[in-house]
């Protein structure tokens, strides 16, 4: 088992970092795409982030082009699209693969068996994984689950209840 905090990340602006940047925070990890039927969820993700960021929530968007080429742009294109169309202020990474030979290490860890969280391949854009402040994966939500749905909000609030804001 990999320690999530050791996993490298490249932010959308090219900054190299690790998941350790989010230590002590509740993180909603989402593979995103600009040309998907679920793309309007960016608005809900931003609203969720704005509502709970001061309580310790981070929404982390990882653009992915593996599902019918629905994220074809460059990092600059993606960042501009998200800002102009949805006012996205939560962190985004450079494009990643969420499955297959070049699967990003974060997704390799997110999709392995965890107590109470379904393992398996990411099936589509906008799947969501909830990681608590201790770095434990505590929930997984299908693409169709809206960011502001009662079940997702309840899971976020439950995870935040144990988060100490750094």
CATH topology: Glutaredoxin
Spatial extent as radius of gyration: 14 Å
Largest sheet: 4 strands, mixed
Question: Tally the helices: what do you get?
Answer: 4
Number of strands: 6
Helix/strand layout:
Layout: E1 8-10, E2 16-18, E3 26-32, H1 41-52, E4 57-63, H2 75-86, H3 105-110, E5 128-131, E6 137-141, H4 150-160
Parallel strand pairs: 3-4
Antiparallel strand pairs: 1-2, 3-5, 5-6
Explain what the structure shows:
With 166 residues, this protein is α+β, with helices and mostly antiparallel strands. The protein has one domain: Glutaredoxin (3-Layer(aba) Sandwich). Helices cover 25% and strands 17% of the residues. The protein is built from 4 helices and 6 strands, in the order E-E-E-H-E-H-H-E-E-H. It has helices at residues 41-52, 75-86, 105-110, 150-160; strands at 8-10, 16-18, 26-32, 57-63, 128-131, 137-141. A hairpin with a 5-residue loop joins strand 5 and strand 6 (137-141). It is globular, with a radius of gyration of 14 Å.
